Input
Amino acid sequence: MSAPRIIAEARLSAPTISFTHGPSPNLIISLRLEATDKPITVAKRPLPELFIAMNAVVLQEATTQKPIATPDVTINQRSAPPLKLVPEMADRFVTLEPGRACKIVEVSFDPLGAQRRGEEATSFDSKLAKYAGGILGMHILKPEKDYTLGVRNDLHIHSWMEGRAEDLIQAAVEWRPCRADIKVLPAESFHFRVQA
Output
């Protein structure tokens, strides 16, 4: 089977977020399978860059397209048993259906929570923001500015098989990833504004 295409989208739960009012936003990453009419199963464990939001997204100022300095994260994989299509390992796989977006990550984009809802927390240079500078979230942004959020354009999926995870597990199929890598194509960037 030739490799299909996967479109990855990163967005927030709202196009306008605020330091002082409204609900805390979430960061959502979804994958959509294209160029095939058959579902595929992807192994999550070898793909930290897709299943850890900090590794997958690109955050930029909208007017200048200047990247926001986010920490570089190196993932050190711990040794683990080989992947097997068994019920005990079902949470290590995700099924992508053709043409349907599959949410793979939903995390808080407001890691400081209620602590940010004060005048001190709205300042980019506040001690609070510096303390949490190693975490991806709205606390590293400036109020009254526009930003774009997208997915990196250098991601690939190399551990996948044709079929749905539950069907493969039920049939006791051996995990044998396809040889063709799938390039993950980024969707159009998500535009949002930060209010005070």
User: Anything to note?
Assistant: The longest helix spans residues 165-170. The mean pLDDT is 84.
